[in-house]
Amino acid sequence: MTTHSAIMDDDILKVSPSHAEGLDTKVVDHSVPKPESIRNMSDAELAALQKKMVRQLDCVIIPIVGILYVFNYVDKSALAASKVYGIMEDLNMNTNDFATAISILFAGYIPFQIPSNLIMTKIPRPGLSASVWGTVSALAAIVHTKEGLYVQRVFLGVTEAVFFPGVIYYLSAWYTKQEIGKRLAALFMFQMLGSAFGGFLAAACLTLDGHHGIAGWRWLFIVEGACTVGCGLIFSLIMPEYPHNARLLSQTERDLAVWRLENEAGAGEAHDDSTTMSGFKLAILDPKVWALIFCMGMIQAMGSTVNFFPSIVQTLGYGRMITLLLTAPPYIFAAIWFYTFSTISDRKNIIYPFIVVGIAMAAIAYTISMATLNTGARYFAMMLIPATVAGPQILVYKTLNLHIARPYQKRAAGVAMINSIGGISNIWASYLYIDAPHYYVAFGTCFGCAALLFTTITVYRFHVRKLNRLLDGTSEEVAQAMKSGVTQTQVDLGWRFVGY
C-alpha cells in the first residue's frame, strides 16, 4: 500500500504485517485518530497487543469457520460420492438426470446469496444456519425418486446460501489486507481437507451398506447431516461477533480491532451509517465488481470438475473403495499449495502472478486429461485440478475484499454478487461431463474458461494500475480515480489497489 510520505507522528501506528508477524513497526501519518483506550500506548505496546489479539482471533475464529466450511462442502458435494455408491440405480436416474441433480442446487443457492449477505451486515451474531442445512442434507437419505432428490437439492441450496459469502465477508470484517489472504487460504485449506475427509468418510460409509436395510449412499447423508447439525449447534453459541461488539475481546482490544481496519480503508461496521441498499447500488455500478464476477464465473466453470471428481478418478479403472480413497491426496496437495502461495501473497502483496500460475497449472491438467489414458499421467493431472481451481478463486475473493473495501455494505454486496452470479456457471457446466474417460467437452470448455480468465484478469490489472497512477497524480487525476469507487477517506489514507 502506498502511503502519504514523511509526516511522522508518535500517536499513529501503521497497521502492517509486522504487527501480526512480530517484525519492526513503523510510524506514518494517517487521518484516523486512535481511540482513547489506546491513545497513550507506545508503538511497541500496540504491536504486542495486536499480535496477542490476532493470535486469539486465529485460535477461535479460524477453527470454527473452518470446521463449519468442511461440513458445508462435504454436505454440498456428498452427491458426487453417492454416484459411486449406486444412487443413480436406486433412483432410476440417467446421466442427464444426475447432472440436473447437481446443477439444481444452484437454483436455490444463487438467488439467496445476495439478500442473505446484505442482511448479514445488520445481524450482530451468526445464526444456526449450519444446523439448518445439516438437517436438509440429511433428508436426502429418505428420498425415493429423482424428483424428491431435486426438491431436496433446491432447499439445500437455499439453506447453504448464507454461509460461504457470509464467511468471506465476516473474515474481511476482522482481518487487515496483510492478514486476510492467509486466512482465506486457511478457509480453503479446510475445504480441501473437507474434500479429502469426505472421501475417507464416504469410503467408511460404504462399509455400512445394507446395515438395517439402508443403502450405503443413504448412510452417507445421514452421518454427514448429523455431524453438521451437532457442530452447528455448538459453534453458534461460541462464535464471536463483529470487532466492535465481540465479547471475545476486552474493550481495549475491541477499540484496536476496529481502529486498525478503519485506519487501513476508512469507516467500517462500527462507524459507517451507509444504508444496505446504497452499498448494493454502488456494487452494481462498479465495473470492477463485474469484471471480478466474470472471473469468478470462469473459475466456477473450471471448478465444476470438483462436482464430478469421484467420477473423474473412477476413470482410472479402480474399484469403488480405491476410487474414493484416491480422491483424497489431490485435496491434501491443494491445501499445502494454498498455504504456501497465500503466505507469500500476504507478505509481498502479490496477487496477479499467482492467479496466472494457477491458470497455467489448470491448462496443463486439462491438456493431459484429454490427451492420454496413461494412469500415471492422468492421476498427475488429477492431483493438480483442485489446486488450480481454488487457488485463483481465493485470490479473486481477496482482490474484491481489498479493492472494494469501503463502504463495507458495498463490499458485502460485492462478495455475494461474485459468489452468486459467478456461481451460475455451475448450472450449465454440470451438463458437460458426458464422454468419459477423456471428457473432451468438459475439459475443453474448462481450458477455454482458463484462457478467458487470463484475458480478463490481465485487463483488470492494467485498469487498477492506471487508477493507482491517477491517485499518485494531480488533484484532477485523483478526482477522476474517485469516480471508480475510491472514497475521500481512502485518498486521505494513501490507499491503493494492491497486488497487481
From TrEMBL:
GO terms for cellular component: membrane. It is found in: Membrane. Signal peptide: none annotated. The keyword Nucleotide-binding does not apply. The keyword ATP-binding does not apply. It comes from the Eukaryota. SUPFAM superfamilies: MFS general substrate transporter. The chain crosses the membrane at residues 57-74, 98-115, 127-144, 150-172, 184-204, 216-238, 289-309, 321-339, 351-373, 379-400, 412-434, 440-460. GO terms for molecular function: transmembrane transporter activity. Keywords: Membrane, Transmembrane, Transmembrane helix, Transport. Pfam families: MFS_1. It is a multi-pass membrane protein. Its main location: membrane. InterPro entries: MFS, MFS_trans_sf. PANTHER family: MAJOR FACILITATOR SUPERFAMILY (MFS) PROFILE DOMAIN-CONTAINING PROTEIN, PERMEASE-RELATED. This is Mfs transporter. It comes from Ophiostoma piceae (strain UAMH 11346).
